[in-house]
TrEMBL record:
The lineage of its organism: Bacteria, Pseudomonadati, Pseudomonadota, Gammaproteobacteria, Alteromonadales. This is Nitrate reductase. Keywords: Membrane, Transmembrane, Transmembrane helix. It holds the Pfam family NapE. The chain crosses the membrane at residues 15-41.
Length: 52
């Protein structure tokens, strides 16, 4: 294994850890909270389900 290959493998591992530990949970929290906000905001104008 050459030094370039080892450095590339190390970078790949760091990117994988960043994606799985930080980015995926952050994006899922933002997506769920964004959907909850959109539903809450729409209910300000339309009322709760079944109230119409």
């Amino acid at each position: 294994m050459s030094a370039n290959s080892a450095a590339e493998k190390s970078l790949e591992l760091k990117i994988f850890i960043f994606l799985t530990v930080f980015l995926a949970p952050l994006l899922s929290v933002l997506l769920v909270s964004g959907l909850g906000f959109a539903i809450w905001f729409s209910q300000i104008f339309t009322g709760p389900p079944g109230a119409g």
